[in-house]
Amino acid sequence: MCMTATFAASLGEQLLPIMREVLAQKQVERPPVVWLELGSCTGNSISLQNSFDPGLEQFLTEVVDLRYHWLFNVVQGEAATRVLLDTVEKEAGRFWLVVEGAVMAAADGRFNYVFSRDKEMVTGLAAIREFAVKARHVIAVGSCAAFGGPAAAYPNPGGALGVWKAVGNKTVINIPGCPANSDWITGTMSHLMLYGLPELDRYNRPKLFFGRTIHELCQRRQQFEDGIFAAFPGEAGCLYKVGCKGPVTHADCPLRLWNNHVNWPVKAGAPCIGCANPQFPDGSMPFYSHLPDIVTPVGRVNVRKIGATVATIGAGMVGTHLAAGVFSRRIHKHFIDGTKPSDPAPPESLAEVKQELDDIIRRQNALLSETKRLEENEARPRRQALLQRIKNFWRTEDKEGKDN
Amino acid sequence: MTRKVIFPVTRVHEPLRAEVEVEAGRVTDAWVSGLLFRGFEAIMHGRDPRDAVLLAQRICGICSGAHAVAGAMALEEAFGVQATPDGQLLTNLIFAADVLQNHLRHFYLLVLYDYVAVSGQGIMPFVAQQKGDFRLPHTINDEILEHAKVATLMAARAHSMMAIFGAKAPMQQTIVPTGVTEAASSDKIMAYGSILRELKEFVEQVYIGDVLTIAEYYPDYYAIGRGYSNLFSFGMFPAPITGKRAFSPGLILKSGPVEELDAAELVEDSNWSWYDDQAGCRHPNEGKTTPDIDKPDAYSWVKAPRYRGMALECGPLARGWINGDYRRGISVMDRIVARAREAFKIAGLAEEWLAGLTPGAPTLSRYSAPPKGRGMGLTDAMRGALGHWLTYEDGKVTKFQIITPTTWNFSPRDTQGVRGPVEEALIGTPVMDADNLIEVGRVIRSFDPCISCAVHLFEAK
Predict the structure, then answer these.
(1) Nearest-angstrom CA–CA distance, A254 and A276
(2) Can you list the domains of chain A with their CATH numbers?
(3) A49 touches chain B (CB under 8 A)
């Protein structure tokens, strides 16, 4: 496990030089790319423009063959649309469809038009459905395109959807983030070009970038372990109590950093808002309030006691419960008090059910190993009490599940 | 007389459709439409007011810093707190970096290709060439294209500079009411200063030069796209403690003297927009509308803000006129030149703010939010006047409204039939080839539109 993670991290660093070399030798053909912007803020295009190594110019001239992006196309109106439609038709099966922004599905997509064909206005929804089947790869860039993102926040006035919900059974590679880090965008694309489909997690995010949690990689992790917490954003200490969603967010920000590796939010004293999460932003709000209380074998841990709990039962234990809480979607549900989210969707595919079962087993194993460790150290009566609590833990949780 | 449609208008932010009526080689009427609806204010409803700063940024990727500044101002007023001196300087520095990246990108990525011919070696998608009256001599043309390559890198550097104090860009994460969560340590001050110096030199030696070169070869654009000549600004970059803004707020009507702007007189009209509001004009605090996609005759998601019945233009040119930095005229080329000059001025101001920082001084102060409050945050964004109005009770937002610069500039007609500023500016634009409206594109792009910002739903409850 540890080995794979190290390998994945170094792969990211090694990728770019390799890519340049390969490109220099012209062994790889630049893929034709169509970049469609739907219900978006253009933030991911801006993030792409912030790319260093490769810079935007190199990316556009050496990595991909960007045929259509309405922010960049020199021609306008009909002439631009012709470029788009020609590419889709002539490069069918070859071109990559990159989508930025959520698919606005309310009113049959009429909240968002993207081009006109034979004087007929075409909605983003219709365009995506038509182009996705013809594309070699469909890549959703940014949290809106991947999961709906801010546009889909309650009450979701425009009926915003992630691309994979809109295109049916086509594999969509999700590169979430608000915006997605430019390295995630260029890195995923170069992986696709040179080595094919990268390994994806169950939300179709490349594990290369989204394989570990922010909490796991964080510079302030030691302060969490030591129970040193900031009481206000901007102060020293772990930012957990002022709302950091690092424990439940999968992304490599602490290692990779942003904007040519200068900074990232927790380093700058600002709690992580979990922008790469499928439930962002509803699942992360309020941004400056801590994650909900955690139920552990030794009772309910609220944020005031978390330092002490971490010290007694171990950070790994608390971390496991945080992850479990998110997995079981309790945290999401508790957390957006006042914003009336719709009920979480039940698992949709067999693969998701399997993944959830795996998570339960992993969680159980974590509890078991913790128990064993305590068994060795603790006196027998204490141990029995603990075992009893563990049993209660599972029961309490069921009861709560109904309460909420 | 022919009616022509440009959709999508490329090289602008987000879906913009322009329809023009052309007669005898001139534009005689125009309609501009924003074609995306997301409804951000409704999303803010019921949430923690502190989240407004970060969530409102998600409206716009190119001007995220401006929304953070306006949101923090509104919250400071609502919470009854004030920015610490260093907090204010850092907020200004983050915002200045964002403005610089915007101005560089606007010129070198978006506007440039209206004036510079791409001969198969530019950096942008060149699958199809634009036809038109490209007048630059070959050598100058290619030289500017080379500058554009450097400029893309410089704009990315500007965002790195923003991230030094803002954690990341776009969508910085450190601005909060009372200041910034990042500390101003000497290494960061140095890093910011070093990028800033590079940028300032580039703006002075390359950007302004390129703009003036283009202006020299396209002098007729000093007479095209004048519009109403009603300019206004909310001002921007407040000084620490005094709050005096480095760019003053103000209003100029029909090229008259600079007047004071009364924010209470702002109203919005949705007669031609897809909202079912029948009551005509309303103040942003009272606006109440729901989307109605089937509304007959409506043609845009953008509403029509008006000031005493007038459509106003905002942006760098308006700021230039109001502050006396640039008063040559009002036209397509004036907007582009004023923007470049402003970039230089802002780089200079940023140097002063940077020099004013004290390492270790508090960059924010702890505060506790009262149970209810109301605040207004008015600042200029890159492309003009931006306002956030926020009311909250019991720790939850009950009202949240935003009017963005592009809502002003790209507004449709109002109930009285008054055209929006861009629609008006398009009238009289000479058109060489009605099938290739490059001139119309030039007028539109000079305003630096951002339609994703412009489209808003006010107070859906």
Answers:
(1) 13
(2) 2-210 (3.40.50.700), 214-403 (4.10.480.10)
(3) yes
- Put simply, the answer to whether A42 touches B460 (Cβ < 8 Å) is no
Pairwise CA distance, residues A380 & A77, whole Å = 78
Q: What is the pLDDT of residue B77?
A: 97
pLDDT in tens, A56-102: 988 888 889 999 999 999 899 999 999 999 999 999 999 999 999 99
Please answer whether residues A341 and A148 qualify as being in contact, where contact means their C-beta atoms are separated by less than 8 angstroms: no
CATH 1.10.645.10 fits domain B2-454:
yes
Q: What residue has token string 């794979």?
A: A4
Are the beta carbons of A111 and B293 separated by less than 8 Å? yes
- Flag whether residue A393 sits within 8 Å of chain B, measured between CB atoms: no
DSSP state of A274: -
**Token pair for residue A198?**
């990268």
Q: Over B251-315, what HEC string results?
A: EECCCCCEECCCHHHEEEECCCECECCCCCCECCCCCCCCECCCCCCCCECCCEEEECCECCECC
Highest mean pLDDT among A284-298, B41-55, B77-91: B77-91
Q: Could you report the per-residue pLDDT of A208-244, keeping only the tens digit for each?
A: 999 999 999 999 999 988 888 999 999 999 999 999 9
Q: What is the pLDDT of residues B150-181, one digit of tens each?
A: 999 999 999 999 999 999 999 999 999 999 99
* Arithmetic mean of pLDDT over chain B: 92
CA-based nearest distance A216→chain B, Å: 19
**Residue-level pLDDT at A296:** 53
**Mutate which: B2, B58, B154, B397, vs A, most A CBs within 10 A:** B58
d(CA B74, CA B401): 11
Q: Give residue limits of the domains in chain B.
A: 2-454
The Cα–Cα gap between A107 and A124 comes to 12
A217 CB contacts (<8 Å, ≥6 apart)?
A: A252, A253, A254, A255
Spatial distance between the Cα atoms of A169 and A348, rounded to a whole number of angstroms: 12
Give Cα B18 distance to the centre of its chain.
19
For B157, name the nearest residue in chain A, comparing CA atoms only: A50
Confidence of residue A250 (pLDDT cuts 50, 70, 90): very high
So what's the pLDDT on residue A385? 72
Q: Do A60 and B124 touch (CB under 8 A)?
A: yes
Exposure string for A92-105, b = 16+ CB within 10 A, e = fewer? eeebbbbbbbbbbb
User: Hey, are the CB atoms on B10 and A37 less than 8 Å from each other?
Assistant: no
Name the residue among A156, A152, A182, A155 with its Cα closest to residue A164. A152
Q: How much is the pTM?
A: 0.87
The ipTM assigned to this model is 0.95
